[in-house]
Amino acid sequence: MLTNNKLKSLLIALPALTLLACASPDEEQASEANEAAIAAQEAEAAKKAAEAEKARAEAAAADKLRKAKALMEKEKAALEAQQTVYFDFDRSTIKAEFQSVLRKHADFLVKNPSQEIVIEGHTDSRGTPDYNIALGERRAKAVETFFLNAGVSSSQMSVVSYGEEKPAVMGASEYAFAQNRRAVVVYQ
């Protein structure tokens, strides 16, 4: 009988063990699948956080660039209001009163190496056209030399002489002559 009892116990335990054995891999697989899903969600969340941080950094950089550009444009507009240097009759020497203005232009150009300018040389109507073209060029070159000495790159500047061709003020008065003897810094 003892053997019968063992046999009965074995017959009852065997299906239970089989059920447990069959259930274990499914539970393990379910647990592994659950852990994989959690890991995938965490990876997706980390990816979204990194993308959000990248977008925030790009927005901050764009805002900084926009502010710097606005400041540069404001400074440039102020300089364009003071772009003319006047010369004495038949002279191409920069007067002391215009050196501070030219220094401001030079500082701006050094800070903004991509900014280019044209320096226009002008004269009054006295003298021959050839002489006035040469004098206008000397005046423009004097401003260019000032800028070069202040550290502005020569690749940022070009020089043109208009001589007497483009007067600022029409007429033959001393005032008109004085207004036409000039060099003008033109931003491109």
What can you see in these coordinates?
This is Peptidoglycan-associated lipoprotein. The Tol-Pal system is composed of five core proteins: the inner membrane proteins TolA, TolQ and TolR, the periplasmic protein TolB and the outer membrane protein Pal. They form a network linking the inner and outer membranes and the peptidoglycan layer. The chain has a four-stranded mixed sheet. β2, α3 and β3 form a beta-alpha-beta unit. The longest helix is centred in the first third of the chain and has 79 residues. With 188 residues, the protein is of the alpha+beta class. α1 runs antiparallel to α2 and α2 crosses α3.
Number of helices: 4
Encode the helix/strand succession as letters. HEHEHEHE
Largest beta-sheet details: 4 strands, mixed
Radius of gyration: 41 Å
Weakly predicted, low-confidence segments: none
Broad shape: rod-shaped
What share of residues is helical? 55-70%
Q: What's the β-strand tally?
A: 4
Span between termini: 112 Å
User: In what range is the share of β-strand residues?
Assistant: 5-15%
Looking at how many chains there are and whether they match, the oligomeric state comes to single chain
Q: What's the overall average pLDDT, rounded?
A: 89
Describe the strand arrangement of the main beta sheet, using strand numbers.
Answer: 1-4-2-3
Q: Helix/strand/pairing class, anyone?
A: alpha+beta
Function: Part of the Tol-Pal system, which plays a role in outer membrane invagination during cell division and is important for maintaining outer membrane integrity.
Domain OmpA-like: 74-188
Keywords: Cell cycle, Cell division, Cell outer membrane, Coiled coil, Lipoprotein, Membrane, Palmitate, Signal
Membrane topology: Lipid-anchor
